[in-house]
Specification:
By secondary structure, this protein is mainly alpha-helical. Helices cover 70% and strands 0% of the residues. Helix 1 runs antiparallel to helix 2. The protein is elongated and about 50 Å long.
Amino acid sequence: VYGSTYVKQTDYRYKLGREGTGIAFAVGPLVSLALATVFWFLASYVYTDSLAILCRSGFILNLANAVFNAIPVQGAGGFVWDGRKIFEWDKAVWLIIVAGSIALIVIDTLY
């Protein structure tokens, strides 16, 4: 599937394990949330319209990516989305991602 993450062990001396796999899947949405936050602040402080539009686009795209990657479903044919892998690994990390996404949506709506 295009854009999906598969963890493949290439070195048999190195064991990724359940925790390492969970961290690998959680990094994507967390980085998207961090970038969305940076773009939101930049959009608030720039003075040119074209740069504000670019920052706003970066905010929206990264936030949408974080929300999409946090959906905990299993698709048809047994394909498991990243959100479900994170949810099964550590529910607290999944809640942090969801809470961060909701917080950014609320803050953007209010301001």
